[in-house]
Amino acid sequence: EKSIASLYTQWYSEILLRRVSAGSICFSMNQKAFVSLSAEGAIPFNAEEYSDINELRALAELIGPYGMKLLSET
């Protein structure tokens, strides 16, 4: 059975980081978060909901150092 750290790490790497690599998400210095670049006809995805500083702090607390290490290695 997968740990919560591995499940969150898998989601962030498969969903969020893949979209960053594809250019549909970029980092906003003003918002201090990753933001979605909307493409016409695409399914809406608000990266801001998952990547602002408060969400990333909560993620780090939830998955701990092991999970953060997994995330940085993907």
Question: Which key features would you list for this structure?
Answer:
single chain, 74 residues, mainly alpha, two-stranded antiparallel sheet, 3 helices, Hem, Nck-associated_protein-1
Please, could you describe this protein's structure?
With 74 residues, this protein is mainly alpha-helical. It has one domain (4-73). Helix content is 59%, strand content 11%. The chain is built from 3 helices and 2 strands; from the N terminus they run H-E-E-H-H. It has helices at residues 4-22, 48-51, 53-73; strands at residues 25-28, 33-36. Strands 1-2 form a two-stranded antiparallel sheet. Helix 1 (4-22) crosses helix 3. The protein starts with a helix and ends with a helix.
Rg over CA atoms, rounded to whole Å, is 13 Å
Could you describe the largest sheet, including whether it forms a barrel? 2 strands, antiparallel
Helix content: 55-70%
Shape: globular
Approximately what portion of the residues adopt beta-strand conformation?
5-15%
The largest beta-sheet arranges its strands as 1-2
Quaternary state of the chains: single chain
**What is the H/E order?**
HEEHH
Report how far the terminal alpha carbons are from each other. 20 Å
Overall tally of domains: 1
Q: Whole-number average pLDDT?
A: 84
- Low-confidence stretches at least 5 residues in length (pLDDT < 50)? none
Class per helix and strand makeup = mainly alpha
Beta strands, count: 2
Helix count equals 3
Pfam family, one: Nckap1
Protein name: Hem
Organism: Neptis manasa
GO cellular component, one term: SCAR complex
